[in-house]
Design goal:
Elements: H1 7-29, E1 37-42, H2 52-57, E2 61-66, E3 71-75, E4 79-86, E5 89-96, E6 100-105, E7 110-113
Antiparallel strand pairs: 1-2, 1-6, 3-4, 4-5, 6-7
């Protein structure tokens, strides 16, 4: 066991779980009254899926607004999917909860700050995998006792 309790990590995890529950409720019931959400996320986090033109325009960070129109809000264990309108065209996004940087509901004057987790849990590609060291053949004769 570590010698320190990582309260910061525990709070971040709890906030993400709270947000997951909130988004699930909004997916079922819609946004009440004048509530709307402003979500900032890190586009570099593994698992973020967005159209290529968006990735080119927002290579590091993107802000989305859930307000008047959104569709296909789907909550999964570690991410959510949503369709939003960009210039009148519906575009689908998938955003891991680990990619979140900010969640705000301006109507409620409520805001959460997150630290995105950039870790890549996927195994390295063959180009990234460590290469075994190449070495010569070692003769065991040098280590044997003479008889």
């Amino acid at each position: 066991m570590t010698e320190e309790i990582d309260y910061k990590q525990l709070i971040q995890r709890a906030f993400r779980e709270m947000l997951k529950g909130l988004l699930a409720k909004v997916g079922e019931e819609g946004l009440p009254g004048d509530h709307h959400f402003v979500i900032v996320f890190d586009t570099r986090v593994p698992g973020v899926h967005m159209p290529g033109w968006m990735k080119a325009k927002y290579p590091e960070e993107m802000t989305i607004v859930m307000q008047h129109w959104f569709d296909n809000l789907a909550i999964m264990e570690d991410r959510f999917g949503i369709t939003l309108s960009f210039n009148g065209v519906g575009e689908s996004l998938v955003i891991p909860f680990n990619a979140l940087k900010t969640f705000a509901d301006p109507h409620a004057k409520f805001q959460l700050q997150f630290e995105p987790i950039l870790d890549n849990p996927e195994p390295p590609t063959p180009e990234e995998a460590p290469k075994p060291e190449s070495g010569g053949v070692v003769s065991l004769d040098a280590f044997r006792k003479g008889s």
